[in-house]
Amino acid sequence: MLNEGKTIAEVARSACLTETTWYRWKNTSGGTKGPDIKRLKELEAENRRLRIMVADLTLDVAMLKEIASGNF
Asked: Based on the domain organization, do 26 and 37 belong to the same domain?
């Protein structure tokens, strides 16, 4: 789109973004290429799964401690 002569504002508007969001995105991931973005998304998904696992294990440990102490 930018190669077609459209301005940043026009491209952002067609993508349902504000111009500010466009520039913020560009500043945070401007140098990131396709494979890097894919790997980043994979790592974020893995991080999400691991956080859920830790939360579940923490609850299990808390329940076992409560059962072991006889306060149930």
From this structure: no
Has this prediction a pTM greater than 0.85?
no
* Structural domain of 64: 33-72
State the virtual CA torsion across 17, 20, 26, 28 in degrees, nearest 10: -110
For the chain, what's the residue count?
72
CB-based contact 17:26 (threshold 8 Å): no
Whether the pLDDT of residue 3 is over 70: the answer is no
Distance, CA of 58 to CA of 67 (rounded, Å):
14
Task: Say yes or no to pLDDT of 28 above 70.
Answer: yes
User: How many domains is the chain built from?
Assistant: 2
